[in-house]
Amino acid sequence: MATYSRIVGTGSYLPEKVLTNAALEQMVDTSDAWIRERTGIEQRHVVEDGEHTVDLAEKASRRAMDAAGVKPGEIDLIVVATTTADQVFPSTACLLQSRLDIHGCPAFDVQAVCTGFVYALSVADKFVQTGTSKCALVVGAETFSRIIDWTDRNTCVLFGDGAGAVVVKADQNPGILSTHLHADGDYAKLLHVPSGVSNNYSAVQEGRAYVEMDGSDVFKMAVRTLGAIVDETLEANGMQRGDIDWLVPHQANIRIIQATAKKLRMPLDKVVITVAKHGNTSAASIPLALDSAVRAGDIKAGDMLLMEGFGGGFTWGSALIKY
Ligand code: ACO
Question: Is pTM, for the whole model, over 0.85?
Answer without folding.
Answer: yes
